Description:
Shape: globular
Helix content: 40-55%
Structural class: alpha/beta
CATH topology of the domain at 301-439 and 478-511: Nucleotidyltransferase, domain 5
Strand order of the largest sheet: 15-16-14-13-19-20-21
CATH class of the domain at 301-439 and 478-511: Alpha Beta
CATH superfamily of the domain at 301-439 and 478-511: ATPase, nucleotide binding domain
Amino acid sequence: MKDKFFIIGADVGTTSAKVIVFEEEGNPVAEGRASYPLLRPQTGWVEQKAEWWWQAFQTATKEALKQGKINKNKIVAIGITHQRITTVPVDETMEPVRNAILWNDMRCTKQNEWAREKIGVKRIYSRTGNFPSIWTVYKAMWLKKNEPETYRKTYKFLLVQDYIIYKLTGRLVTTSSSAIQTGCLDVTSPTKWAEDILDLFDIPASLWVDGILPGGELVGKITKRSSSLTGLPQGLPVVTTAGDQPCGTLGAGVNQQGMLAINGGTSCSLEVYVKELKLDPYLNYFIEISPTGDYLLEDSIWSGGSALMSWFKDNFAREEVKEAQKEGEHLWDKLYNLATQAPPGNKGLMLIPYYSGASSPYRDLMARGVIFGFLLDHGKSHLVRAILEGLAFESRRKKEFMEKGSGIPITRVRMYGGSAKSPVWNQIFADVLGVEVCTLKTPETTALGAAICAAIGGKVYSSFQEAVKKMVHVDRTFLPDFGKREIYDNLYSQVYSKFYDRVQDLVHTASEIIEQHKK
């Protein structure tokens, strides 16, 4: 180990900061973590204090460096990825003027509706690659309308990576791959803001970070002060990366056409690699930008595997939690494995995973999760299987949208994130999608993707292709069981893909009734 170079990939995520030290072949050698809470001041609102990200980053970095007994002189560079869309407004001293508004905060429903009606989805999508949704600019519009004094004090809207890089280097920059999901970047020229769209939104371009860089660029070096706070060497190069999902896609080795990355984390993001911009005439996916500078087609299930399985654990699995603690068994293995006690197709019990609203094809922040088909002999194992199959069915739907819009068939899936650690999860996805599913030796692919960018900026490798080849390693391959294919095909085509269309209006009515009675 002492003869190797080290590269640091950090992921400042939704609930924690992770700092992982990799050696140059992509193998993790040390890791530090520190968590922070979510604030939910009102239904549908999610906030955090930006200071928590910085404090957690410091703690996690010190832990990683101490844990691994790393020779700091051998660290080449650091890259930081982050929860996307989340924004903190800061004043001219770079101090937050309020809590950060998180990516999964749904307060901007009215701003979405206004943009759809007054400007039009197609016009916005053609310029930004994104249709009205939870993107940062709509949160800025909400702030202007509802907290005008805070908006008046705002000098810049910073993304998480922007904030941490400023703390580390004193430089204020962002990246194309981070800025694209503000909803106001020019998708055809992604080092510029779409000023024509911002003018229509009445949000000045000056409120966004001026310097927009690609991934893998040296942006600055660790200052003396940040060195003393983090334990990182003074002068260590800091390299631009991307948001968590594009970094996760890169860390999963998805850098060829026909490959799809699926993240089984808090949100279930799906990203398809394409060399050229392919806007969807059907508006069923949005555009991301890889740290490599190439384009990604993306859509998300905002309540993903980790989120729904945590919901199951907190509400239905007290016995399993106690048993796992008593027997020394890994809790998540125990919970995911419950699905093996239920048959494929789950005796007709199905779940629509819209627990935090719905992306394509509905783009509906008022959407809600649905479970249907209960019988008296359905139990916990069937509920777990409903979660896994429901997420797989929804992923299949999005996969088909991307194939239709791009004209590129998807033949390979790379799985990453928390749920990817479960063989049960991966096999169900292979069976429902009907293609091979591979997992990676390094499950923390978001941090690995950030480290790959750092390896480019630190001159360890000369190209992203070379870095991926050297640093990304497949662990297991899951092939579809075509004996289960008929039941999954029939349930998907005849039931799942049609069900929400038939109940959407009722879900809206129920939500409206609840809102009326809250007043």
